[in-house]
Amino acid sequence: MIRKHLFNIIFTVIFLGLFSLIINLYYDDVSRALYENDIFPADKGFDILECQNWRNEMRQFHVSDEDKAKQVTVLMYHRVIEEDQIDDIHLETNGDLVSTVMLKSEFDMQMQLLKNEGFTTLTLKELEAFIEGKIDVPKHSIVLTFDDGFKDNALEVAPILREHGFTGVSFVITGVVNLYDAKYEPGKYQYLSVEDIQNTCDVFEFESHTYNFHKRMDDHTAYLIGKPDELVRKDLETSIINLDGNTQAFASPYGAFDENNIQLFQKLGFNMAFTVVPETVRPGTDIYQIPRKEVYPHETIIDFKEKIGLQDGDT
């Protein structure tokens, strides 16, 4: 009787131990799967090199001295949302739109203005050549950039750009790109899928906005500055792999960078890097500190005209 009772105790202990081990192993696998699905694989590319060939074809504009640009404005956007899809996530506590959310109707109006005024959207290679004094570009030239890689850029922005014959630059946090496509949910922080990228690579140049370093330290220092150099390098190298080896341009999260970062951009082969300093671009501008003007939701169409130089006639 005692022997049987002892056997039952031993059996129970062994069973519980094995069961616990199995559960822990299963939990680890599930956790790992969730983590891997939550971040784009570090060794995988978006497979978009062929459909991005158009960005390498630099146009010769043959403009007269009177019609050539003295400066070029680079605009910066983030999210573009339909008015009837605005949710709490898009609003400040006072009810205003957060600074990174633009109504689709406003964005459409801005693009229509650019079209009506005869603006030309430049590719990054054309902007690079303009900065280096190698080409002249039309007086009304502009570069449209979109940071982070939100899904709404594919669904709301791309069709408008196509309609007007414009192109843009998408600075993507490559690690948050979704391997598989999902239904669009504008009320969430939803990022591009690989399918979105492939479907819009005729209108967007896809460039690096880090792999997974669009973050801040506890003291609010940007990862790009606060993390050890070797970790920053590894992150940017991974983003380059995701972008199929493309190193045309980089945009620093929050516009935060230091001299070490600039040296790293050069070592990794980036041709140019962008900031958030609200100035215009001229021949001779520092190629690794290219300014951009952010477009805010509270601005009027008059503000927009001033931002793109229509008011001062100095484009």
TrEMBL record:
Checking Gene3D superfamilies in the record gives: Glycoside hydrolase/deacetylase
User: Which Pfam families has this protein been placed in?
Assistant: Polysacc_deac_1 (PF01522)
**Sequence intervals crossing the membrane:** 7-27
Q: Which GO terms describe its biological process?
A: carbohydrate metabolic process
Per the record, the domain of life is Bacteria
Annotated localization: Secreted
For molecular function, the Gene Ontology terms on record are:
hydrolase activity, acting on carbon-nitrogen (but not peptide) bonds
Cellular component, GO, one term: extracellular region
- NodB homology domain sequence ranges: 140-315
- Keywords of the record: Membrane, Signal, Transmembrane, Transmembrane helix
- Quick check: keyword Nucleus in the entry? no
UniProt-listed PANTHER family: POLY-BETA-1,6-N-ACETYL-D-GLUCOSAMINE N-DEACETYLASE, PTHR34216
What protein name does the entry list?
Polysaccharide deacetylase family protein
Which organism was this protein described from? Gracilibacillus thailandensis
- High-level lineage: Bacteria, Bacillati, Bacillota, Bacilli, Bacillales
